[in-house]
Amino acid sequence: MILGRVCGNMVSSCKWETLKGHKLLMVEPLDEELKPIGPPFIAVDTVGAGFDEVVLVIESREATLAFDEPNTPTDMGIVGIIDEIKNGTRHTRII
For the domain 2-93, what is the CATH code? Predict the structure, then answer.
């Protein structure tokens, strides 16, 4: 799983049938301190995430499990919006 921040969106005039109704979002990967750690990637939104939200992304074949149709062509899927992170004594509330 990847922690990331939504940094943009993509517009597609034509998509695979099972992707219709789902947004394509640009996500910047983050470390546990919410600092960027790599280049942005595209992920299919399954939870209604928005710009600048911190999200949980699954990758590879498991990304298709968020869809009703098991053969949906994707390898990055947003499956959660993060509200807070607790790591030992450190607690980060996402605003």
Answer: 2.40.50.220
Q: Distance between CA atoms of 54 and 23, rounded to whole angstroms?
A: 16
In degrees, rounded to 5, the angle at the alpha carbon of residue 51 between the alpha carbons of residues 5 and 58 is 40
pLDDT of res. 95: 66
Tokens describing residue 91: 């607690």
Q: How far apart are CA 4 and CA 23, in angstroms?
A: 16
Closest CA to 34 of 49, 53, 58, 48: 53
Is a pLDDT exceeding 80 seen at residue 77? yes
Say whether pLDDT at 28 is over 90: yes
60: CB partners within 8 A, 6+ apart: 75
Tell me the sheet residues that pair with 55: 4, 81
